[in-house]
Design goal:
The complex is a heterotrimer of chains A (about 180), B (about 650) and C (about 220).
Chain A (H helix, E strand, L loop, with lengths): L2 H25 L9 H12 L4 H11 L3 H10 L11 E6 L2 H5 L2 H12 L12 E6 L11 E3 L2 E3 L4 H23 L1
Parallel strand pairs in A: 1-2
Antiparallel strand pairs in A: 1-3, 3-4
Helix pairs in contact in A: 1-2, 1-3, 2-3, 3-4
Chain B lengths: L6 H22 L5 E5 L2 H5 L2 H15 L5 E4 L11 E4 L6 E3 L4 H12 L9 E4 L34 H6 L4 H7 L3 H11 L11 H10 L6 E6 L8 H8 L1 H15 L3 E7 L3 H16 L15 E7 L8 H8 L23 E5 H13 L1 H5 L2 E2 L2 E2 L1 E8 L5 E6 L4 H8 L9 E6 L5 E4 L9 H6 L8 E6 L4 H15 L5 H18 L5 H17 L3 H5 L2 H20 L12 E4 L10 H5 L5 E3 L5 E3 L9 H5 L7 E4 L11
Parallel strand pairs in B: 1-2, 6-7, 6-9, 7-8, 12-16
Antiparallel strand pairs in B: 1-3, 3-4, 4-5, 10-11, 12-13, 14-15, 14-16, 17-20, 18-19
Chain C lengths: L2 E6 L2 E6 L4 H7 L24 E4 L6 E2 L10 E3 L3 H16 L15 H9 L24 E3 L9 H9 L6 E3 L6 E3 L16 H5 L5 E3 H11 L1
Parallel strand pairs in C: 1-5
Antiparallel strand pairs in C: 1-2, 3-4, 3-5, 6-9, 7-8
Classes of the chains: A alpha+beta (about 180), B alpha/beta (about 650), C alpha+beta (about 220).
């Protein structure tokens, strides 16, 4: 093994240990009852940002159910993620009103600008892109939820505007870091 | 309704109520101005939080002491953000389209000064001689607020606001009545489930009460998954206590010890406001052990749904509460016989439960006097799409679609023509102009091939393609199908594949025939309501708009110019104002350039059809147009 | 338990009241196509939608697995409407199934062939689009070969592995068209807690789960 590969393995082992630790901490608040499975998964995902393999193993052991059973529930619901999220989350609403007012065009714009597909995270881990069935702001269609904040009337030009705002913040932070 | 007078319950509630009223009067009858800012999710999307912050900073700067409350949704979502100012000497005034600049002026000129800034007024909340009120709006003729009675008027995070407005009085009455009498009362009111199916609420409760087995459960279904519907979100964000009170009354009637509110996790603000409301209700002993010092004990847990549309189906919702994947199971047994953990369970929709407290206060007869035929009470609709007044409306059952769309909703914007209205989301259908005189109730809409569903109403105009809307809904149901039964899992996928082909101009007449038979078979063969209703959007568009399907198939043409594969953007050379560069500058993929005569030309290979140039081209030129089929683009440009 | 009598396809049958119609029919030698029915399971899955029958007093065909028998009941398993729905359900299943009988060792004992024969249909219909998922075959296990492309999601293997024997190696994951019988994190079957009881292979109605020695024979067939 090259030294670099060794370092990576070490990192992922550390990350795994942290994930296990975090999961165990989250589990403390819950009884060992099957009906707690979904609230547990939500709690763990809130802590880790996603549900890594080791978290699911811990949860299955805690509740005394097969791991595949936990996996089945995790993959059934839209809310749960199997991969780490980006720093900023972009959720394009594809409810009826948004679709008819061009939500699919907005989604295309996000895909083009971020160069990823829906359900993916950018290589620099800055953004993850996903769709959402409806956030209930149909009157502001088309809507994109940026970091949990619904933004109304997001057309391709506004996509560029939102990204530019993030870019400006990032540059300001860089400048600050230098000083 | 006869209430057996119980001195302890009555006096326990009287204490709470008089304190709440004193608290309310201290704020609203004190002679000082009060500001209400609508900060439900739709308001927030329009910038209500910035407006709120501006108001607070401005008040601080001016050193004016004026209470500011965050309230829910008034229903006039088209004009968000909304601000209501009550100032002595004036009626309460609602301002629309408020931004930070307007907010600043309102504080400076109206709160600190004496200018009510009439130019920003949407309407007064009460009739008066000074300012036109909402009662003068054409929609006021039809609107009747039962479920939405408090929305936008009270602070949803302050239980005393709710109590001061008759809140929990229904519960206090109910607790002094026998459960059987409450069930009779609900039956007499004619209340039917607002989740879509329209089953008699009283009968459901009675069945659950009569079934042996303990404990019993009440579940509030707030897993509002229909894309295009937001009534339940608005109610939970604006008036969570009305739902909680309804749940407690239901629990008392059926003899339940525990209840759940199942809210979508996609509604974080609703989740937060329900959580606060539950905490406050417990503190006042309106929840928990010996509610209002009676013998009745009951508590509610909040459960966040994890995003699966199928969980709106009651057996799937129950599976989800039990920690399983949300798969529907075969019914019967229905939940009132065997529900959560196999125990008798009532599952009611948000709007059904929010209708219960006013029935308790005003009586079954009052509720039964509203509505028409077998549909009593009011219908709450979320109006969205191509309609002027998008927002939340509540009208008596039996109001016609035309009245809802053209009088309450003020019709179609931009002088466009009405084409169809999509009702009931993925389970509903698209109704054409000829169906506009149908009354909105449970039975008439089903007869026309749609259904009331939970109440989403999306209006479509001449620019909307009916094949595309059918395809959109099939894509939705296909994605949200749980995958348990063959017809829904594979049948909707087959239908979607056919519709994809048709909207891309690759469909055949034989495909259309297969589509029709598949739709009928999926309807007959599926296990649960999701599958059984999934073909409705296709069946109704085929029934009323079959010619559009033929245009796609035989001519490769999308008459509404919507299907991306079948259209091309084109700049009319004789309309292009050559010195203007608006389209070139805004094109997101640099597909537009100037030719030798400085006329703008679109490179069809590069164009991603994002519509930006069409919106950017100034209205006095209107040079950018869409053509279908794409072969219509003059050869010169290619 | 009270004994009652009913008629299936004109044949007089006695059964215990409350028994499941599908099993009463099958036990009396009347075949009704089915894939997801499990005798020991208290609640019917009602997932495969093949066991449609027509019944007196019902305007629409119903699934036999969700009905209990009652006195005087009259059932027709060969009604036009019921057969049309069953055929359509089967056609849908097969349009997403890898049909490869010539190279499949289950050929001859496969329940899909039996159903096609009973319904008088071909294994592949031309009307529907072929919607295959092309999932990888799991060959890791010393005794079992699992080909998800031949799976019809009947759930029999999941039932024996999870609920009946409490082993918990196999289960359902994902949703809708993506739904699949799989292992934790889709890892190779050999690395799971499978205790090699091979009950899953026994109950599989198709060539999805095969014992290795047969799978080897299949490889020879291919070569």
């Amino acid at each position: 093994m090259t030294p670099k590969a060794e370092a990576v393995t070490q990192d992922s082992k550390d990350e795994e240990a942290i994930n296990r630790q975090e999961t165990r901490l989250a589990l403390k608040r819950f009884g060992r009852k099957r009906w707690n499975l979904i609230p547990i998964l939500q709690k763990v995902q809130a802590r880790l940002g996603y549900l890594p393999r080791e978290a699911m193993v811990e949860i299955a052991a805690y509740l005394g159910i097969p791991e595949i059973d936990v996996y089945g529930v995790v993959t059934f619901y839209n809310q749960f993620r199997l991969n780490p999220p980006g720093k900023h989350s972009i959720r394009v609403c594809l409810g009826t009103a948004c679709h008819m007012k061009g939500g699919y065009i907005t989604l295309d714009a996000w895909k083009r600008r971020l160069d990823i597909n829906s359900g993916e995270t950018t290589a620099d881990r800055e953004f993850d892109l996903d769709t959402v069935a409806c956030v209930g702001c149909c009157t502001m269609a088309p809507v994109t939820v940026v970091d949990n904040q619904p933004e109304g009337k997001v057309e391709p030009t506004k996509v560029d505007g939102i990204l530019l705002a993030f870019e400006l913040v990032r540059e300001a932070e860089k400048k600050e870091a230098k000083q | 309704m006869k209430a057996t007078h119980s001195p302890t319950i009555a006096s326990a509630f009287e204490d709470i109520k008089s304190r709440a009223i004193a608290h309310w009067q201290e704020v609203f009858d004190s002679g000082q101005p009060v500001i209400l800012v609508g900060t439900a999710t739709c308001g927030r999307a329009a910038g209500a939080l910035d407006v709120l912050e501006t108001i607070q900073t401005e008040l601080e700067k001016l050193g004016v002491d004026c209470p500011v409350f965050e309230v829910g949704c008034l229903g006039h979502c088209y004009a968000e953000p909304l601000v209501v100012i009550s100032k002595p000497g004036y009626p309460p005034i609602c301002y629309g389209y408020v931004n930070t600049v307007i907010a600043e002026r309102l504080v400076r000129e109206f709160i600190a000064g004496d200018n009510p800034c009439l130019e920003f007024v949407l309407g007064a909340l009460e009739e008066n001689d000074l300012i036109p009120s909402f009662a003068d709006f054409p929609r006021a003729v039809y609107e009747k607020k039962v479920v939405l009675r408090n929305c936008g008027h009270i602070d949803p995070t302050d239980i005393e606001h709710y109590i001061a407005n008759d809140g929990y009085s229904g519960l206090a009455t109910a607790l002094q009545t026998s459960p059987e009498e409450i069930i009779t009362e609900i039956k007499d009111s004619g209340l039917r489930g607002r989740g879509g199916a329209g089953f008699s609420t009283g009968e459901k409760w009675e069945k659950c009460r009569d079934t042996r087995g303990r404990p019993k459960y009440v579940i509030c279904n707030a897993d509002e998954g229909d894309p295009g519907a937001f009534m339940d979100r608005a109610i939970l964000e604006s008036d969570p206590h009305s739902v909680i009170e309804g749940i407690i009354i239901a629990a008392y009637a059926i003899g339940a010890r525990y209840g759940y509110i199942y809210v979508r996790a996609e509604y974080p603000l609703a989740v937060e406001r329900v959580r606060i409301a539950l905490r406050q209700a417990r503190k006042l002993n309106l929840l928990g052990r010996h509610i209002l010092e009676s013998d009745f004990s009951f508590d509610i847990r909040l459960f966040e749904g994890s995003g699966a549309f199928v969980c709106g189906e009651e057996t799937a919702l129950i599976a989800s509460l039990e920690g399983q994947a949300g798969m529907p199971r075969y019914r019967p047994p229905y939940p009132p016989s065997s529900g959560l953990y196999g125990k008798p369970t009532v599952v009611n929709n948000v709007k059904t439960l929010a209708s219960v407290p006013p029935i308790m206060v005003n009586g079954a007869g009052w509720f039964n006097d509203i509505g028409s035929g077998e549909s009593r009470g009011t219908a709450v609709f979320a109006l969205a799409g191509k309609i002027v007044n998008t927002g939340l409306v509540e009208v008596p059952m039996g109001t016609t679609l035309r009245q809802v769309i053209f009088d309450v909703g003020s019709g179609i914007p931009d002088g466009k023509r009405f084409k169809a209205v999509q009702i009931g989301g993925p389970s509903g259908g698209c109704l054409p102009e000829s169906a506009l005189d149908l009354p909105v109730d449970f039975d008439s809409l089903t007869g026309a091939g749609a259904m009331m569903g939970s109440g989403g109403m999306v209006v479509l105009d001449e620019d909307d393609c009916m094949v595309e809307i059918a395809r959109y809904f099939l894509e939705f149901t296909q994605r949200e199908s749980c995958g348990k039964c063959t017809f829904c899992r594979l049948g909707t996928k087959q239908m979607l594949t056919l519709l994809n082909d048709i909207t891309q101009g690759k469909g055949t007449q034989a495909d259309l025939d297969t589509l029709k038979t598949l739709a009928e078979d999926i309807k007959a063969g599926s296990l649960c309501g999701l599958g059984k209703t999934a073909p409705n959007p296709v069946l109704t568009t085929l029934r009323y708009f079959e010619d559009e399907y033929h245009a796609h198939i035989t001519e490769g043409c999308c008459p509404a110019l919507m299907c991306q594969q079948l259209i091309a953007y084109y700049i009319l050379p004789d309309k292009c104002e050559r010195s203007c560069d608006a389209c070139v500058g805004t094109c997101t993929v640099e597909a537009i350039s100037s030719n030798k005569r400085r006329i703008k030309v679109i490179d069809q290979e590069k164009c991603v059809k994002c519509n930006t140039c069409l919106t950017a081209c100034p209205p006095q030129y209107n040079a950018v147009i869409k053509l279908s089929p794409p072969s219509e683009v003059p050869a010169a440009e290619k | 338990m009270k004994t009652i009598s009913l008629k299936i396809d004109g044949k007089q049958i006695t059964a215990r009241e409350g028994d499941n119609l599908l099993w009463v029919a099958l036990d009396n030698g009347i075949y009704i196509p089915n894939l997801c029915a499990i005798r020991d399971k208290p609640e019917p899955m009602a997932a495969c939608r093949l066991c449609f029958v027509e019944m007196s007093g019902q305007t629409q065909p119903v699934t036999a697995c969700t009905e209990t028998v009652t006195e005087g009941m009259e059932v027709n398993t060969r009604g036009t409407e019921a057969l049309r729905l069953a055929r359509r359900g089967f056609e849908l299943l097969m349009a997403s199934n890898r049909v490869d009988c010539a190279h499949c060792v289950r050929s001859g004992s496969c329940e899909l062939q039996k159903i096609a024969h009973h319904l008088g249909t071909k294994l592949k219909s031309k009307r529907l689009r072929e919607l295959r998922r092309d999932l990888p075959v799991d060959n890791s296990h010393p005794q079992i070969r699992y080909d998800p492309n031949r799976c019809v999601l009947c759930g029999r293997c999941v039932w024996v592995c999870q609920e009946h024997l409490k082993t918990g190696a196999l289960g359902f994951a994902y949703r809708g068209f993506e739904r699949v019988v799989t292992t934790f994190k889709d890892e190779p079957l050999a690395t799971t807690r499978c205790d090699q009881c091979l009950k899953c292979v026994e109950v599989c109605p198709t060539g999805a789960l095969l014992p290795k020695e047969k799978a080897r024979a299949e490889a020879r067939l291919r070569a």
